[in-house]
Amino acid sequence: MGGKHEPPSSRSFWFSLTTTVVKWLVVLGAIVAGVLVLAKAFEGAVQPEGASTASLSPEPGKEPKPEKSPKPEQTVGVRLGIYNGTKEDGLATDVERELKGDDGYVIDQIGNTVDPQDKTTIYYIKGKDAEAAQALADAHFKDAFVLEFPADTEVDVDGQKGSPDKGVQVAIFIGEDYAPSK
Known about the structure:
Layout: H1 10-41, E1 79-84, H2 91-99, E2 106-113, E3 121-124, H3 130-140, E4 145-148, E5 155-157, E6 160-162, E7 170-174
Parallel strand pairs: 1-2, 1-7, 3-4
Antiparallel strand pairs: 2-5, 3-7, 5-6
């Protein structure tokens, strides 16, 4: 003997409609989330050579204004020590002029390295400053090494050898490979 079947009611219609709408909202939310994840994943992707860049072309007779890169939050207030490791006098001061006020850096100390430097190296004093050191290298010293500061390394400031000033978070050791970006 079969069960009793009830005729459709207005209540079952609204329940069915609500369930369908909720399912479509879940699907739509999943699509939007997927698009956002993909957009974030391909942010800054390089465009292949020969690809159309018509929208990037300036109007005839007008020069495009260079876009200023956004200031990374990790550089604001970062205290720098700049140390010349070359035979050329004045490079640390040149780098100071180039970086002063740029991206929020604070120049804390200027001096020389004790040992000659072949390769420009950006040192972070503490692990928490590694991102700031990398941001500095990416923006101003493309070919520089980024490493943790060796504890036994000394600098020479005004003829006094010792560790970088306690306030220094990132130390720039200018090497013979340094070429000003002017």
